[in-house]
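Listing S7. Sequence submitted for prediction.
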Amino acid sequence: MAESQVTLAAIIGAHGIGGEVRLKLFAESVESLQRHKAVQVGDRALTLKSVKAGGGAPIARFAEIADRTAAESLRGQLVTVSRSALPPLEEGEYYHADLIGLACVGAGGVPLGTVVAVENFGAGDILEIEKPDGKRAMVPFRPGIADLVEGTIVADPAFLA
């Protein structure tokens, strides 16, 4: 099985005539994207030469993309790296990608659903849980409300009502 990929950005369009692209950043910062030289863009392996902060969107240059036409052809593609290329985590840290797909249970192991997304609107991470009936609920990822315990999210069922 191929190693899982983690999305760091999406290409939203060309910038200038020299092959640069504008990005919608999903990584924590421009610096966290800069540490990667080899990336996947769609199904292509590309070399990230530079990333810099731009007006509203960071600007990236890939070694293999030399003109605006080539840059435009990347519009809508995701910029990903393999999970193993990410820096190691400290105790208590996690990558959003590692939470997606985890089972969510209540106290005593009662199944509550599956984590399908992680959002952050500025006040901390929020887990989107898909319940067995297909409905979804947003739960704050905070101690006592939703905890990561041995590869499972243990949540207070009152927050999924």
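Caption to Listing S7: primary sequence and predicted structure tokens for the chain studied. The chain has a mean pLDDT of 89. The longest strand covers residues 5-15.
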